[in-house]
Amino acid sequence: MAVHNQVQLITYPDSLGGSLQTLRKVLDEHFHDIFKGGIHILPPFPSSGDRGFAPLTYFEIEPAFGSWKDIKAIGAKHDVLLDVMVNHISRQSAYFQDFLKQGRRSPYADLFLTLDKVWEDGQPVQADIDKMFLRRPLPYSTFTIEETGEEEKVWTTFGKTDPSEQIDLDIHSDQVKRLLTEIFENFRNNNVKIVRLDAVGYIIKKLGTSCFFVEPEIYGFLDWIKELADSLDIELLPEVHAHYSIQYKLAEHGFWIYDFILPYRILDTLVNKNAEALKEYLITRPAKQFTMLDCHDGIPVKPDLDGLIDTKAARKLVDTCLERGSNLSLIVSDEHKDADGFDVHQIRCSYYSVLNSDDDAYLAARAIQFFAPGIPQVYYVGLLAGENDEEGVRRTGEGREINRQNFSVGEIEQALGKSAVQRLLALIRFRNEYDAFNGDFRVLQSASHEVRLEWTKEDLRCTLQLDLGTNRTVIDYVEADGTTAQFVV
């Protein structure tokens, strides 16, 4: 299948009305002409942590959210995108629970990355660990096997608890390949059109490396899974937070990539009223990307923008974000911080709040996103111009909850009354329907306090003009009959 060059929605299964069934109703009643590009439903599977990202199984939908019937029904009208956490599965999964009981005698033992698959004697070496890009202080957890009392150390890249809830899979194992094949076949049977390969950068563990996006080994897996997806008419979207050069290599390899640079670039442009770095970036970036401003994590900084930003200027921007209520996710490994100690991994916030809840600035940000070549995604909180959920952070102690609040149907209907939301919906309709976005893109010359972007296709042309002094955003365009018109964003 081909990905539709139209706007997509990102949402949790329970964030817009509490269930998949209500999500479907909300889409039909309020957004039937809006998300023509598709719906990214964040993990709807039974999970033991990380809000869905520690799945017990991919063959069931969490009953509190609904069933596969609901996914299939949404997929009948929208391209559905689901995640596969190719790096790990839940500690509570039937597979790992059987391993905890029987150890190496378990029929599922080979699914998991026990430490003897990394270090021959199964004993971790700190000098090797020091080279790794870590997401927790130690990349493994220790378990006691019920039947034998023996200890087993298993790789666990992610997880806030010890032992971790997220158990790494051994992607070299035939068992893992069989499991992934069955997952993809089930997706195809339930109208899933796009699969995001979550945490795919961490799948190769090789001593002497950072164990992150290890080349060339990672391409062996990516080529294998692409062949599987192609055979089932499913598109793939690898999710890799890494130095931008790695994203560009993925693009050269023919994959869709995420534009994790754009959210920071747009924020920097609007806060500092200077568009030079943004324009330079828009001229050189690959076109085959999914674009976003906000998501369930945060605005990427390191390592995504390593080498692209001055850390002194970045610190100033981060301080502005903190003043506006944001919180930060930081890099764990000293080796992967900047020389001056700059260690910001992501800025966590609602994108509307980080722009000071300024409607014009927020719509300017969306207009730039929609004009940047690629498939635009809008996160549900951003769709409703939601603000920082500070209460959610206090209640849970989890910084990412700042941008993960749920909306009841009543709250959705109330948000639809906001001027910012109505203006955003009008902009999405224009982006979906104006055919020049399927043509050629140019960054036009302009002063440093202006952004001028243009799309042309045959006789159609639309030009975005943004004055950073006032955040006034205007789109001039040519109608099908040749007359000119203007759309004030």
TrEMBL record:
Top EC class for this record: transferase
Cited InterPro entries: GH13_cat_dom (IPR006047), Sucrose_phospho (IPR022527)
Pfam families cross-referenced by the UniProt entry: Alpha-amylase
Keyword list, A-Z: Glycosyltransferase, Transferase
- SMART domains assigned: Aamy
EC number per UniProt? 2.4.1.7
Q: Which NCBIfam families match?
A: sucrose_gtfA (TIGR03852)
PANTHER family, from UniProt?
A: SUCROSE PHOSPHORYLASE
Q: Name the chain's protein.
A: Sucrose phosphorylase
The species is Paenibacillus brevis
Taxon lineage:
Bacteria, Bacillati, Bacillota, Bacilli, Bacillales
